[in-house]
Amino acid sequence: MRILQEWFFERTAHPPERLVARFNTLQNSSVRMQNFPVSMRPIGFQILPAGQAVGIDSIQIASRHTAGPISKPSFQSQVSKVREDAIVAVVNRLLAEKGFDLMTIDEVAAEVGIGKASLYKHFASKQDLGAAAMAFVLEGALGHAAELAADATLDSFARLEAMARWAVEQQLSGEMPALPAQNPSLRAAMARHPLYMTRLTLLSDQLGEWIEAARHEGRSNLAFPAELTLFTLFAKGCDPVVFIMKQSGQYTDAQIIDRAVQSCFAGLAGRNAARPHKRRD
């Protein structure tokens, strides 16, 4: 899990109902939350009665409420949620434009139109802002995954390709936060963020299911470990080649997306390219 976080740290509301049904098919996935240390589990996984099936409805994946009966939010809580959403939207854009190190709390507060003290009532630190922005991105990724899962015309390999295309599109549109991988305080904020951890786990499980299905169907190269394929998909959200192609001015966004995805799924070798010879010692 930590390796996956480090890959996704680089650049990178309510649950889709169709995802609930999809999650119930993931009980045999190799990555299961029950196997994680208690300190790494999101709220909800820690309180399930023994033997109870795990599902999105149990952990309230996209809800900001903790476990327990869902009551009608007060007017004050609704105002607070709207403000938090506005803060996260600004943070997401600034992180995509300038990166974590150059973004400042003062800048975020000014763009939202609130005081710095008011912002700290919602988010205790700059690191917490980064974690919230990544949780927001994962919400979009899960929503897109749910749409792909519901499309019966797509096989598993096509769904993986579509997810990679979505990630590149997010990067091009400036909606993929740029976060540093080697930042212990940011990593700690991510690890303690329930929504981020839960969404990351669910997305990994869904992609993992499609990867295994594509390998079984002979659509994916069995020589590559499944986890390597998973990391490659996450890395598409922070692909430096996309930025270089954009800066060159030689390609349209559509061309950049197509070529970034094709280089990943179709490879760089031509049809008649000879296989490389093994090196002899």
Question: Which terms summarize this structure?
Answer:
281 residues; mainly alpha; disordered N terminus; disordered C terminus
Record the SSE blueprint.
Elements (H helix, E strand, L loop, with lengths): L1 H8 L7 H7 L32 H4 L15 H24 L6 H8 L3 H7 L3 H25 L5 H17 L11 H8 L2 H23 L9 H10 L4 H9 L4 H13 L16
Helix pairs in contact: 2-7, 4-5, 4-7, 7-8, 7-9, 7-10, 8-10, 8-13, 10-11, 12-13
* Low-confidence parts: 1-68, 274-281
What is the H/E string? HHHHHHHHHHHHH
Shape: globular
How many beta-strand runs? 0
Question: What is the gyration radius calculated from CA atoms?
Answer: 20 Å
Oligomer: single chain
Helix content: 55-70%
Strand content: under 5%
Describe the sheet with the most strands.
none
- Helix tally equals 13
Arithmetic mean pLDDT? 75
Verbal overview:
Helix 7 (126-150) packs across helix 9, helix 8 packs across helix 13 and helix 12 packs antiparallel against helix 13 (253-265). The chain has helices at residues 2-9, 17-23, 56-59, 75-98, 105-112, 116-122, 126-150, 156-172, 184-191, 194-216, 226-235, 240-248, 253-265. It is mainly alpha-helical. It starts with a helix and ends in a 16-residue tail after the last helix. The chain contains 13 helices and no strands.
Describe what is shown at a glance.
By secondary structure, the protein is mainly alpha-helical. It is 58% helix and 0% strand.
